[in-house]
């Protein structure tokens, strides 16, 4: 089975994890902070998660924009962002997305009101949003902008690195991102451009506790997100049982804490190897674009016009059921994943429908070609099916 993997680790990442039994890696956070500061030319604060960095920004916004209660986000987004907004006492306003699954800048002005405190603009699956235009609009309306680069590291827009636009930027090191250290709560960073925000952070960050990496979190990451298979299935049903019995503990990853030493050490290694992984990912995406762009039953929303870096590969089916396609892929040895929120529902004409995620990270180019072959077989299957149906009608 060709799997949808959530990270690309080499020997050294595994070695860092193994040596955590005998080494605390206490120097890693400061080294990582210095490396990111030189890279982004911004003040850097490391946290236990990307959502914790967003939460701290929203705490600042609540103090500085009193009476404003709304935060604009794209309609298609990770649910953790919505949860963080609500936990911070704001109302999430869902604006439309364009074909690339990012905030639609043409529709955005209509959602801004005198209650708008902030805009969170993610780059969905590392595909750059029109962040320059969003930043310009935010400055014009005096709205706090979070350049949410949680899913992307090292990609530029208009000559500047994503995460450096607006008042603040956010990185996340959780599964399926560009830099991966583990599951949610495994680290993130705040990139500060606003001097007032820096003063607010300086007044608070010293009091934060250091996050700790639990053994159960490592096991969950390895079994459910790395090795998958039967572990993933068992985890799913265990989670369902916990929910039914109401014993699921609420997550507190949005509560700001300092990054764990181990997470910082692995993140530092991932930063060092990003260019290599970036190049390998582009090679895989070039094959996908070449082999799949002419298939009539699907489109490639984020690489339709050019082969550019994305951290997760999404296709859109305009006339077929994503779930039926997913079942066909599974029967032919290819795993896939349903997307955020209700994105894998039947296509209804909106950009955030008809979506399915195919394997991309940590697979060989030969495996990419195999995935393409299965997609092409499915296209032929649909054509043959249509011919049969037409023949039955003419009879």
Q: Which series of helices and strands comes N to C?
A: HHEHEHEEHEEEEEHHHHHEEHEH
Please give the share of residues in helix: 40-55%
Cross-sheet strand order for the largest sheet: 1-9-8-5-4-2-3
Protein structure class: alpha/beta
Total E-strand runs: 12
Explain what you see.
The protein is α/β, with parallel strands linked by helices and about 400 residues long. The chain has two domains: about 10-205, 3-Layer(aba) Sandwich (Aspartate Aminotransferase, domain 2), CATH 3.40.640.10; about 275-395, Aspartate Aminotransferase, domain 1 (Alpha-Beta Complex). About 40% of the residues lie in helices and about 15% in strands. The chain has twelve helices and twelve strands. The strands form three sheets. The chain has a seven-stranded mixed beta sheet, sandwiched between helices. A three-stranded antiparallel beta sheet has the order 10-11-12, covered by helices on one side. α3 packs parallel to α4 (about 80-85) and α10 runs parallel beside α12 (about 365-395). The longest helix is centred in the C-terminal third of the chain and has 30 residues, at about 365-395. The two termini are about 40 Å apart. The model has no long low-confidence stretch (mean pLDDT about 90).
Give the helix/strand layout.
Layout: H1 11-19, H2 28-40, E1 43-47, H3 50-64, E2 70-74, H4 79-87, E3 91-95, E4 116-122, H5 131-141, E5 144-148, E6 156-157, E7 160-161, E8 168-172, E9 188-192, H6 195-205, H7 215-227, H8 230-244, H9 261-272, H10 274-292, E10 298-299, E11 313-317, H11 322-331, E12 355-358, H12 365-394
Parallel strand pairs: 2-3, 2-4, 4-5, 5-8
Antiparallel strand pairs: 1-9, 6-7, 8-9, 10-11, 11-12
